[in-house]
Design brief:
457 residues, single chain, binds pyridoxal-5'-phosphate
């Protein structure tokens, strides 16, 4: 029997017309969607007037929170002056130029050119096409495979979903396609072996990567893609020294590192880029999400000069560089990217995030002691709370219980939005959150965990 309240009119319309992404479609008819109506600061409100602290910045993206008037003004001005133009065939627009200049300035490694897309998936798809193109252009046509990692999340287009290392993105979709190989996930809590130190775990993963490369053939591998902190795989923070251990192996085999900063970028980890926090030295970078603080869709691929020059040479032979999206570099997205970065700088968002990290850390450490929490992991202002049936043995809850989604629902009933990734509750609040709001968010999480424990008994 369905003990849920009857659906409201707007929920019924939603159910009738929307195919919801990443949603258990078989149970949605019982609960209906939570239809969000408006937002202000770190709060969002549903159509029934309920208030929530948005503990996930939407989808790890609304770093400036909701209702920022400077962003609204920048959007309005851009829509009035030039609502659309493109960059094809040598055309240009000033917001795109300005944003590319800013990204070059902020980049953690030397960047020569920026290629704009509309999303993170398109950015990573582009990364792979560019890697193939680059290796054709430099006379290495066999060097095409991309290494990714189990539990990685790089998007949902055919190639970016193949890079993603999560079963529900592959099963039933006939993915991953070939040319993608997955290496181990750097999650010590889950994949560290009995008696193995973190340092030994890192050495084992580095050895395993080397073996994979040798097995596949180094001359067949173009690049490895990695998020500094893995986000949608469950907020997995690699152990100390992980990137320092794998990077020399990649260099040795002429395999370059693609840095997926789609979640980590623009201050989330306390630096502009997660690669700075985690000790990565990438050759190319993907960005999206907080690039515009999600006020408009935009993605970017940032490239060094030698890759760019290979395209120029190849374009000389072929006649053009044959890649581009209708909305890649859309004036609205670019104007909002410029404005978001300007606001981050004006607010000194890095100092703000760094000032909140001790609060975030203290609350996560407390949550780690909760009886149903196996691990509470974090980096900067992003965290993952993994729920387990048995703390001592790390035994997960039976999958049929769906404890993660249940905890997220209970949190919503307590006025906080988190995202359940399996049985991990992800937390990634807008970077503008105050210490007081952050504490309120964690109070609500603790209450939800108590309620979840009670339910699980
Ligand atoms: N890369 C990472 C690290 C992401 O977290 C995501 C989305 O969550 C993507 C790529 C895909 O971005 P989009 O959903 O904009 O296509």
């Amino acid at each position: 029997m369905n003990s849920n309240p009857p659906l409201t009119n707007v929920q019924a319309r939603d159910l009738d017309a929307i195919l919801h992404p990443y949603t258990p479609l078989h149970t949605l008819p019982q609960t209906g969607a939570t239809v969000i109506d408006h937002g202000k600061g770190v709060y969002v409100y549903d159509t029934q007037g309920n208030e929530y602290i948005e503990g996930m910045s939407g989808l790890w993206c609304a770093g400036l929170g909701f209702g920022n008037e400077e962003m609204v003004e920048a959007a309005t001005q851009q829509m009035r002056s030039l609502p659309y133009y493109h960059l094809f065939g040598g055309m240009g627009i000033e917001p795109a130029i300005e944003l590319a200049e800013k990204l070059k300035e902020l980049a953690p490694v030397p960047i020569s050119k920026v290629f704009f897309t509309s999303s993170g998936s398109e950015a990573n798809d582009t990364q792979v096409k560019l890697a193939w193109y680059y290796n054709n252009a430099r006379g290495k046509p066999e060097k095409k495979k991309i290494i990714s990692r189990i539990k990685a999340y790089h998007g949902v287009t055919i190639m970016s979903a193949s890079l993603t290392g999560l079963p529900y993105n592959h099963k039933g979709f006939d993915l991953p396609i070939d040319r993608v190989v997955h290496t181990e996930c750097p999650h010590y809590y889950r994949f560290g072996q009995d008696g193995e130190s973190e340092a030994d775990f890192v050495t084992r993963l580095a050895t395993s990567l080397r073996e994979l490369i040798e097995r596949e053939g180094p001359d067949t591998i173009a690049a490895m893609i990695a998020e500094p902190v893995m986000g949608a795989g469950g907020v997995i923070v690699p152990p100390k020294g992980y990137f320092e251990a794998i990077q020399p192996i990649l260099d040795e085999y002429d395999i370059y590192l693609i840095d997926d900063e789609v979640i980590n970028g623009f201050g989330r980890t306390g630096n502009w880029w997660g690669s700075e926090t985690l000790g990565m030295t990438p050759k190319t970078i993907s960005a999206a999400k907080q690039l515009t603080s999600a006020y408009a869709p935009l993605g970017a691929v940032m490239l060094p000069e030698d890759i760019y020059q290979a395209f120029v040479d190849h374009s000389r032979q072929i006649g053009t560089f044959g890649h581009g999206f209708t909305y890649g570099g859309h004036p609205l997205g670019c104007a909002l990217g410029v404005k978001a970065i300007e606001i981050y700088q004006k607010l000194d968002i890095l100092s703000h995030v760094r000032s909140l990290i001790p609060v975030f850390e203290a609350r996560m450490k407390k949550i780690a002691d909760h009886p149903i929490v196996g691990e509470a992991r974090y980096c900067g202002l992003m965290g993952g709370v993994e729920l387990v049936a048995d703390k001592a043995t790390k035994q997960p809850f039976d999958a049929s219980v769906g404890i993660g989604p249940k905890a997220a629902t209970l949190a919503r009933q307590n006025g906080a939005i988190f995202r359940a990734i399996g049985d991990t509750l992800a937390v990634c609040p807008p970077m503008i959150i105050t210490a007081e709001e952050l504490n309120a968010l964690f109070d609500r999480m603790e209450k939800a965990l108590d309620d979840t424990e009670f339910l699980a008994k």
